[in-house]
Amino acid sequence: MALIVFIIHSCLRACTPMLRTIVLLPPLLSLAASSGCAADVWTRQEAVAWHGEYAAASPGYGPLRYRGTDAGHHHFIIRALDEWVVMRVPVDELQLEDVRPLARYSGEDYPGYYAVDPQNGFTRIND
Questions:
Q1: Using an 8 Å Cβ cutoff, are 78 and 60 in contact?
Q2: Helix 17-33 vs helix 2-14: angle between axes, to the nearest 10 degrees?
Q3: Is the distance from CB of 81 to CB of 55 less than 8 angstroms?
Q4: Are 93 and 102 in contact (CB under 8 A)?
Q5: Which of 82, 69, 72 has the alpha carbon at shortest distance from 116?
Q6: Average pLDDT over residues 91-112
Q7: 3-state DSSP call for residue 103?
Q8: What is the mean pLDDT of residues 39-47?
Q9: Distance (Å, whole) CA 121 – CA 42
Q10: CB atoms within 10 A of CB 54
Q11: 27-48 as b/e, with b when 16 or more CB fall inside 10 Å?
């Protein structure tokens, strides 16, 4: 592994800045596209576990907000430090008391209808 890193490092040092950009840009864009900002389908258990491990234990996270429901998923969003984490949970895995149509981002700090507590059955909370 160290040999591969050394070879890549040596090749990139010898390359022109334009060639470095061409070589490095696709992997970097791939990493950015797969970050927590991208919408992702989560199981109910995954959402509860993630929230319990990260968001519930950190003051840097905002509340998990319910954004609405489409034909197949309940949509949630949370501000996680300096990025947004978007969660889509299949409708058949989670029943909510107050189901609403999917809200679009409107420039608010926390877009969505209301905050929920995944640790307590995704019940609505006051925020």
A1: no
A2: 130
A3: no
A4: no
A5: 69
A6: 83
A7: coil
A8: 90
A9: 15
A10: 16
A11: eeeeeeeeeeeeeeebebeebb
pLDDT in tens, 61-83: 888 999 999 999 999 998 887 88
At 26, which amino acid appears?
Answer: P
| Residue 118, number of CB atoms within 10 A of its CB | 23
CB atoms inside a 10 Å sphere around CB 56: 14
pLDDT tier, 115 (very low <50, low <70, confident <90, very high otherwise) = very high
Look up residue 39 and give its two tokens: 């919408």
At residue 24, the 3 state secondary structure works out as helix
What count of other Cβ atoms lies within 10 Å of the Cβ of residue 89?
Answer: 24
pTM over cut 0.85: no
**Tokens (6 digits) for 38:** 């991208």
Give yes or no for a contact between 119 and 51, defined as CB atoms under 8 angstroms apart: yes
Across the range 25-48, mean pLDDT stands at 64
- 90 vs 70: CA distance, rounded Å: 10
